[in-house]
């Protein structure tokens, strides 16, 4: 998966035109939309035994969310429907199903916009800086990369990713600046 993410990151840089200024927003939108579309396609076409039986979890959730495609069923409904046996005891195993279930097409659209913005910010800093965002998009195909029902290791990975965006958007810390730990020369006072 890591090699796939790095290859996608490099391809995005090539798509955007190498090193010079180009269309980072368009590139980000295309990549984020493709990621979301792939995630939703996997969920929509899954059979019960697909993807290590994730398909069974997805089928049951698909039945619920089909009546709430625009704004979703709401995240609180997941636990309630688990309690009465409508949904699997497992969480979604798909970031995109989670987004569709919790927020519908609106939630998926907001996520895609956020991912496109993250990619746009990172593209200007070099192809390797897009890898964390792409990892989120690719890993989300088969896992709920971030589960708002709990705070775990993936929560901190997403927080770190979001915290890194302002630095990338601003061009990152400059050499010799106080941001990267350079010591200012001491001035002697008489």
Characterise the protein shown here.
This protein has helices spanning 2-15, 24-45, 50-65, 76-83, 95-123, 131-139, 153-169. It is elongated, with a radius of gyration of 20 Å. The chain has 190 residues and is mostly helical. The termini are far apart.
Throw out a few tags for this protein.
single chain; 190 residues; mainly alpha; elongated; disordered C terminus
Task: Assign the structural class, choosing from mainly alpha, mainly beta, alpha/beta, alpha+beta, or little secondary structure.
Answer: mainly alpha
Write down the Rg: 20 Å
Mean pLDDT: 74
Count of helix runs: 7
As a percent range, the share of helical residues equals: 55-70%
Q: Give the overall shape, derived from the CA principal axes.
A: elongated
Extended strand count: 0
List segments where confidence is low: pLDDT < 50 over at least 5 consecutive residues. Answer: 173-188
Beta-strand percent range: under 5%
Main sheet summary: none
Order of helices and strands: HHHHHHH
Please give the alpha-carbon distance between the first and last residues.
61 Å
Task: Describe the protein's topology.
Elements: H1 2-15, H2 24-45, H3 50-65, H4 76-83, H5 95-123, H6 131-139, H7 153-169
Helix pairs in contact: 1-6, 2-5, 3-5, 5-6, 5-7
